[in-house]
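Provenance and format

Records in this collection were gathered into a single text stream. Each protein contributes a sequence line and a token line. The two records reproduced below are adjacent in the stream.
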Amino acid sequence: MANVTIWDGTATFNPGSSTPFGFYDTDTQFQTDAIKVAKFCGTRLGYPLMDVELQDQSMFACFEEAVTTYGNEVFNFKIRENYLNLEGSNTGSSMNNQLTDPTLNRIVQIAKHYGTEAEVGGNITKHSGSIDVTAGIQTYDLDTWAEDQGITGSIEVRKVFYQAPPAIQRYFDPYAGTGTGVQSLMSAFDFGAFSPGINFMLMPLSYDVALLQGIEFNDQIRKSHYSFELVNNKLKVFPVPGNSGKLFFEYYKLSDKNAINYNNSTNLITNVGEVPYSNPKYSHINSVGRQWIFRYTLALAKELLAYIRGKYQSVPVPGSEASLNQADLLADARAEKTELMTSLREMLDQTSRGKQLEAQAKEAEDVQNTLKSVPMTIFVG
């Protein structure tokens, strides 16, 4: 194997060739920090007291990966936080450094499906139809009716207009005086010679309600009440129809309810992979984020050095051999990466919209409790 120069304590950054992808090579702050980070990692790995089997470009690659990882975690959090608002929007412009204003558009769209079932709106067209009721026939097949109407996929009946005639139709006109027991009063006041329509003797509203209720109870108890039974789109009406006529109902087409609504428009966000976030701009990352990146770069460099030293468990030296610390490096690197990732995700979770609202509510409650402990002053005039 050819001799490869290991790190000598110096670093030179060349934009366009020093990192594998060059995501941030044109950012002057990235160029400056790349050199500082390489020296930082080298020092933390033992240089100059011991050799560090890496080159400056190895550390630059770790630095680029750390910045990209930080950006991915931040933007993944933003996607999770706002995806309900983002889905269906345009993919045309980058969302980096853009504030996402939450809306109810997607929630309203989802709620429309519930509205369909609850009969309070919805996004499925409700149709009306009617069947011919024949005297003496109780059962009617609505699937057969749907086939006759050219409807494929059957129907879902939501309302059947089969009810007893309103009780008010059998209620004598109170203003005519008939049946209300006030006819004698009309004569007493010399109103008998006039048209009944001018009788303004007002009865209590409770009287009208009680009379209508009596008519309805009479029909329910003493007669076969108007009702129907709908099983598997087989409609059975009670009582047996005595006359022929029309029976109306409302229904949904199952083909409409089962259809999945597609939006075939182009350039729309349809999954998390299409949300237009790009790699972060390094110069926009604050000192807190950069400190995380520096530490994650060190963990990556330590992991890379462990893999390199793992090729040789020991190195011969004059009169003996030296054991390498590959296992310790690898264990430390993995633990540090896990710890850094956990702390970043916990911090992002604490900044979520829900957590912030909970914190504000708790703060308001604590303020109120504190104010309750403030003694009330006594005014002496």
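Adjacent record:
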Amino acid sequence: MNVRYRVELNQEERDQLNDMLAGGKHAARRLKRAQILLAANAGQTDEAIAANVSVGLSTVSRTKRDFVVGNLEAALDEAPRPGAPRKLSNKQQALLVATACAKPPEGRKRWTLELLADKMVQLTEHDDLSRETVRRCLAENDLKPWRRHMWCIPEVDGTYVARMEDVLDLYTEKPDPRRPVVCFDESPMQLIGETRQPIPAEPGKPGRKPGKRERYDYEYRRNGTANLFVFVDAHRSWREVKVTDRRTATDFAHCMRDLADTHYPDASKIRVIMDNLSTHTAGALYEAFPAPEAHRLLQRLEFHYTPKHASWLNMVEIEIGVLRGQCLNRRIGNRKTLVTEVNAWKRQRNASGARIKWMFTTTRARDKLARVYPCTANES
């Protein structure tokens, strides 16, 4: 028997449906059901509603039935569909997840969907298993065994914390021209030249001819490497970039002499923040200069080291990122051009007054990293 259901919406229900159709993010099926209910309430026939909303007559009848028998939410929401039964039981899914997290087979770098499917056939009673079944199970558990993420895993001990808080305390000091805080690091640079002359960009003609981007050949020529020594003042808008061929202990020593005698000649003590590279030592100055000269420089320099695997604490890392993004992320074919471009960038950035606004303090470190701080020994 063909039962006809009559839809009668009250004012609150009409307002709710109209608001849903007016804006916001809703499922397409939910919006169609709202249109069906409003049209049925207005007295339209099932055939007209089906044509206007682009659904079948059975959908119109089912939506009206759910409203009359149930309520508005019952009509708008879709009951879960049974679908085909899962091929893997809960226990087998757990086995698949554990296998994906385990070491891959001998001779393989990582698990693939096909390898996991074959392994599950060996471990279970299934005769075959599709890669799509494996993919869905892994996706539900947010697993991608073919991907790896490289990360520095620091060992947080007393030395780590001491060095971290030492650096953070320097950042929060008031600026003192007599005792500046300078962050220092180096960065390698490949010199890459063009094999063919790039074709410059061309403007287009509106409505007739689109513009063209700059085009360059995928082939390139390696012209060796260079090294960038980068300094940045933690408390004022100043940075210096020195281009060298290498980054030996002697190069480091000459950078420290430039820092003391050229850039900060009036400073009584220059606090230098840097990482633990083997060349970053006081001994490097004695290897590069006579003992009296090395001793003179070290009387005005004070080295502060970031913890191992914690270069993010060095403010100069941010400045190197800016340098690469604004200047170096392109092909530069020779040392002379590199020096010219870096010096131009340095002058512009120093003149702009740009500074790094460091927000991470010792207090915040103790709060946010409290769980990794070493536990204090019990008082006897």
